[in-house]
Amino acid sequence: MNALTDIFERLQAVVDNPVKQLDGFIRSGKKVVGCFPEYTPNEIVYAAGMVPFGVWGAEGREISEAKKYFPPFYCALALSSLEMGLDTALNKLSAALIPTLCDTLKCLGQNWKSGVPQVPFIQLVHPQNRNTPAGVAFLVEQYKKVAKQLETLSGQAVTEESLKNAISLFNLRRAALREFSSVAAQYPQTITPQMRNTVIKSGYFMDVLEHIEAVREIIARCRALPQEEWSGHRVVVTGIIADSPSILQILADNNMAIVADEVAHESRQFRQDVPEDCEPYEAMARQIAELEGCSLLFDPEKKRGGMLVDMVKKNNADGVVYLLTKFCDPEEFDAPIVKKHLDKAGIPSIIIEIDQQTKTYEQARTALQTFADVLSA
Length: 377
Ligand code: SF4
Hints:
Elements: H1 5-16, H2 18-27, E1 32-35, H3 42-47, E2 51-54, H4 76-86, E3 95-99, H5 103-115, E4 121-124, H6 133-154, H7 160-186, H8 193-202, H9 208-223, E5 233-239, H10 245-253, E6 256-263, H11 267-270, H12 280-290, H13 304-314, E7 319-325, H14 329-344, E8 349-354, H15 362-376
Parallel strand pairs: 1-2, 1-3, 3-4, 5-6, 5-7, 7-8
Helix pairs in contact: 1-8, 4-5, 6-12, 7-9, 13-14
The structure holds iron/sulfur cluster.
Keywords: Iron, Iron-sulfur, Metal-binding
Protein name: R-phenyllactate dehydratase small subunit
GO molecular function: iron-sulfur cluster binding; metal ion binding
């Protein structure tokens, strides 16, 4: 038991049973929209009077039906998300909002449309040249198209005012999570890697206000604790998703505290606010235009490696753990480039393949034990 046990248990219950959360929203008369990876505009869903609900696959879910639509070697995140649609677990969603940022997601959208017709598919196409006037204008039009489809489902118009309010609210959550991430680095004994993940992940299934309140409560309780010493290792984690209880436990077992992350499912969702000083659709498109360090967002200069070097220095970290999602092409292309940057800066790093279908991680355990020894040397 520690000062945060009760609140962590509450958030853990949320992440352990997202369907219960979904049922709760439906019972309270809300319509819920499935927001798939990566970079779905939660603010538009909220402004249309509905609840954005994260669908980022499911750890350990048996895949059978989805293999009729995808080759079995596709990324498990897409496979398990489709499986949940095909086995009707997500039937209560009013729509599935699926971007097209990688080849797998392009197919996922089309497969969803064909295999899960009971949950309407809404496609979102991000521009390749996102940081140009034409790219921003294109994404604004995409967002307006998505808003129209959501309005039809909810019967509530997305007005400039409702969208601005939603942006402010989601920026508040971004700020709370940024603060939490930095507090987690200061209290590594209290906030284990698993707890850190739970706090961030629970936001995908909770009402945004309720989640902000919980995160702020955790921050306040941590700040009331005496300063924590940490004689273990301080690592930065990068990848698409770090939502693997086994891997997070292996990090904890090897005295590794996550002091910062560059993970699509985690900090990349809250690292950068949506600007609040211009027209709201344009503001949201600008945020995507300016977001850097993601293997899915076109970046001819490949800035992610340099960003990780800066992150390691800023957080006084000892090394980087690259959690490479199995069969994820964008990440496989980025990994050697990132490693080269880290090597050049003399920062130890390790690449660990993760997969929501993997049952045992004994090889990863050995590799991370060795990495811990390297960090101790
Ligand atoms: S970016 Fe990678 S993890 Fe995400 S859907 Fe595409 S292949 Fe899967």
